[in-house]
Design a protein that fits this description.
about 210 residues; Rossmann fold; 6-stranded mixed β-sheet; about 45% helix; globular; 2,3-bisphosphoglycerate-dependent phosphoglycerate mutase; glycolysis
């Protein structure tokens, strides 16, 4: 019986997370804490005795670097990796690069909260969570899931909102439930799937 292993990990803290900026498709690197979180993710996976056959990540460096640092801890540098913008963070449009407090001053607390926490209301020039799901889910179904079901042990390093898309399907969550789902930076979530792609077991390694 194959393992059907799928591990999701949100990138470690970025410089812009640290500065309280909307990031989206902008491409800041990891902060010092983010580097530590990425390495710790790798150590946690190693402690579970896990190795991987393939990895997926976004085209943004904070996710790619998290993946590289985690794989180095496991001793799997050079693992076959596929990068795709389908796994990118939600595009925050006109909010990208703005301090969250400044955005609240400009548009008002209530409006910014709607953009951040509603399911289908996008910020100006950007994507809603629903839009993010619409690009991440087909990629998961077509590119990631078939390998997992064949027994390829798979690691996905991506972003809070693109990973929510995958979690929404895996855990059968409603739009309301997925909005409330928080993902810690650098904390792997380990799924083992049944042959029909449903979840057999889940282990969240958040500290």
């Amino acid at each position: 019986m194959s393992d059907r292993l799928l591990v999701l990990v949100r990138h470690g803290q970025s410089d812009w997370n640290l500065k309280n900026l909307f990031t989206g498709w902008k491409d800041p690197d990891l902060s010092e804490l983010g580097v530590s979180e990425a390495k710790e993710a790798g150590r946690k996976l190693k402690a579970q005795g896990l190795t991987f056959d393939v990895a997926f990540t976004s085209v943004l460096k904070r996710a790619q670097r998290t993946l590289d640092l985690a794989l180095a801890e496991i001793g799997q540098t050079g693992l076959a990796t596929k990068c795709d913008l389908a796994l990118n963070e939600r595009d925050y449009g006109d909010l990208s690069g703005l301090n969250k407090d400044d955005a609240r001053k400009k548009w008002g607390e209530e409006q910014v909260l709607i953009w951040r926490r509603s399911y289908d209301v996008p910020p100006p020039g950007g994507e809603s969570l629903k839009d993010t799901l619409a690009r991440a889910l087909p990629y998961y179904v077509q590119e990631i899931l078939p390998g997992v079901l064949r027994g390829e042990r798979t690691l996905v390093a991506a972003h809070g909102n693109s990973l929510r898309a995958l979690i929404m399907v895996l855990e059968k969550l409603s739009p309301e439930q997925i909005l409330k789902r928080e993902l810690a930076t650098g904390a792997p979530v380990i799924y083992r799937l049944n042959a029909d792609s449903t979840v057999a077991s889940k282990l969240d390694l958040a500290a």
